[in-house]
Design brief:
- By secondary structure, this protein is α+β, with helices and mostly antiparallel strands.
- It is 38% helix and 19% strand.
- It folds into 2 domains: 2-245, no CATH class; 251-483, Aminoglycoside 3'-phosphotransferase, Chain: A, domain 2, CATH 3.90.1200.10.
- It has helices at residues 10-22, 81-86, 120-129, 169-173, 202-212, 253-263, 268-288, 297-318, 326-337, 377-380, 387-405, 416-433, 445-467, 473-483; strands spanning 2-4, 37-46, 54-64, 67-78, 102-106, 111-115, 143-144, 152-156, 188-192, 195-196, 221-231, 234-245, 251-252, 357-360, 363-366.
- Helix 8 runs antiparallel to helix 9 and helix 8 (297-318) packs parallel to helix 13 (445-467).
- The chain binds adenosine-5'-diphosphate (ADP) and ligand LMANGFYV.
- Adenosine-5'-diphosphate binds at residues 145, 149-151, 153, 189, 191, 219, 244-247, 250, 252, 356, 358, 367-368, 370.
- Residues 148, 150, 254, 351, 353-355, 368, 372-373, 395-396, 399, 460, 463 line the site of the ligand O=P(O)(O)O[C@H]1O[C@H](CO)[C@@H](O[C@H]2O[C@H](CO)[C@@H](O)[C@H](O)[C@H]2O)[C@H](O)[C@H]1O.
């Protein structure tokens, strides 16, 4: 069922005026260091089964130089301010204190408005409105994740921790062999997409297809909500959020790698296993979401080279430090255009890095199939070279050494930790993919990877310049190395 975001209530404009002060402090707000024009696109009222709060999902258009995005801002409204401030808040605010979830008040008599994400009333209402198996969860004890995220995720414990999410007739439609589900204890994680894009969100559709196909290394989607909203004079539709199995006790692959790099402990065994899981993912994607028309190999090489050139034009326009690499980038692109036997394109992850890999119960799980958040939506679901995902993972080893050992010493020491991890990941990937639908190693694997790593490092330079300027040196050093 698709819900319509077509109504526009007088309080929406009042709430949007409050958001002008609140949004700029949110990590996911796309306008940085400039004034944004905010307008209400519309809203959707969800019914809280307990009737404790008014639950409204607002769609807000944010415009600034270079930015024009529709943002999702779920809010809850209550006449009683204390109740609204007592729930779990991202910053752990104490009752009576305005925490980061507190937005302000509107109307007379006043209704107190807070960030809905993490508010049990919103979570209850969302669970009632969504489609999918939706296991029983304990909305009162949910916890909002903080940190470097493009969206907002909330961990919601199971209302009956022994209960398996497979129960119920709807669940059987999404059922599959045991895997990630064994590691969840019934808890779930709700990911609320902040920047909305028209069309089916790959972060919902791809894991659903993979799980249905029996691939066990992806947390299975358990619920999703779709809406329709006006954009450029017509109605578009897209996903608003997805609820997935929560992998209990999981360690983020990037944090794990940083800690091991810091201790000088080899990541090779974990990398080899990860390479084999990535190969399995590519085989599963190729069979669950088959693509047609592979095109000619020489056209694929030319397109890969052109993509690097386009990425460089975009990135060097935004990161002045990249200007000096024009000749080196062009030389690498020209070599790439001459490659032969590039494998056929297929559906891929699109933004694979160690932070999208979770390690739990001696297994790897892959998350976040949304593609690169800075890329246009059409590009995120386009069939592409599977090696692009491998290149993304390889870039992560570079980040893990730099961050794990300290940015100040990055690039000055012994590279063997990253070299070993890199070789092991590639070995695991090639070994597991030879003969599978995912492809195996192409004759020019190292050449293609060099071009794709450069492409990713250029993307990362823009990402870091916008979000973490202190880390910009990591991709810049990689660009210098790759074209040097
Ligand atoms: N199914 C899951 N089980 C456990 N942790 C998860 C799961 N999905 C995501 N996470 C964790 O939640 C955080 C945010 O998830 P992610 O999908 O990467 O969001 P974003 O797109 O906002 O960066 C990450 O730290 C990730 O490790
Ligand atoms: O996880 P997201 O989908 O939001 O991806 C974006 O943010 C990532 C950082 O959180 C960024 O990844 C880069 O930093 C990682 C370390 O934090 C590193 O492991 C990756 O290799 C590096 O690309 C990603 O590029 C961006 O799209």
């Amino acid at each position: 069922m698709t819900m319509a975001v077509t109504d526009h209530e007088p309080t929406d404009d009042e709430v949007v005026r409050l958001l002008a002060d609140w949004l700029p402090d949110r990590r996911w707000f796309p306008v940085k260091g400039a004034d944004a024009r905010l307008t209400a696109v519309g809203g959707l009222t969800l019914a809280d089964p307990r009737g404790e709060a008014r639950v409204r999902i607002l769609l807000v258009r944010a415009e600034a130089p270079g930015v024009d995005t529709v943002l999702q801002v779920p809010v809850t409204m209550r006449p009683d301010r204390t109740a609204a401030d007592d729930g779990p808040t991202p910053g752990g605010a104490r009752p009576g204190q305005a925490g980061p979830a507190w937005i302000g008040s509107v109307g007379s008599p006043p209704m107190h408005v807070r960030d809905g994400v993490g508010d049990p009333a919103f979570l209850r209402a969302w669970m009632s409105a969504a489609e999918g198996p939706r296991p029983p969860v304990d909305a009162e004890h949910a916890r909002v994740l903080t940190g470097e995220q493009s969206n907002t995720s909330v961990i919601i414990p199971a209302s009956d921790p022994a209960g398996a999410p497979d129960e119920g007739p709807a669940a059987s439609a999404e059922s599959r062999p045991p895997g990630a589900g064994d590691a969840t204890h019934g808890a779930a994680i709700l990911k609320v997409f902040r920047a909305l894009a028209p069309g089916d969100n790959p972060d919902v559709d791809v894991p659903r297809a993979l799980a249905r196909g029996g691939w066990v290394h992806v947390p299975r989607p358990l619920g999703w909500l779709e809406a329709q909203w006006p954009e450029d004079g017509s109605l578009v539709h897209g996903h608003l959020a997805v609820l997935s199995e929560f992998v209990d006790g999981a360690q983020d692959g990037f944090e794990l790698a940083c800690a091991m790099a810091e201790r000088g402990e080899s990541f090779a065994d974990l990398a080899r296993d990860l390479g084999s899981v990535v190969a399995g993912m590519h085989a599963a994607l190729a069979s669950a979401l088959p693509t047609t028309d592979p095109g000619r190999a020489d056209e694929r090489a030319a397109a890969t080279a052109d993509a690097v050139r386009a990425r460089y034009r975009w990135a060097s326009g935004l990161v002045p430090e990249l200007a000096q690499y024009a000749d080196g980038v062009e030389a690498l692109a020209a070599r790439t255009a001459r490659l032969t036997d590039l494998p056929a394109p297929q559906r891929i992850h699109g933004d694979l890095h160690l932070g999208q890999a979770l390690r739990a119960h001696d297994e790897w799980f892959v998350t976040d199939f949304e593609g690169e958040p800075l890329a246009p939506v059409a590009a995120r679901t386009r069939p592409d070279l599977a090696l692009r995902d491998v290149a993304g993972m390889l870039r992560s080893f570079d980040y893990a050494t730099a961050v794990g050992r300290g940015l100040e010493t990055a690039g000055t020491g012994d590279d063997s930790w990253a070299d070993d991890a890199r070789a092991a990941l590639l070995a695991g990937y090639v070994e597991a993919s030879s003969g599978s639908a995912g492809g195996g190693a192409a004759p020019h694997t190292e050449d293609v990877l060099r071009a794709l790593e450069l492409d990713k490092a250029l993307y990362e330079a823009v990402y870091e310049a916008r979000n973490r300027p202190a880390w910009l040196s990591i991709p810049l050093r990689a660009v210098a190395r790759l074209v040097g």
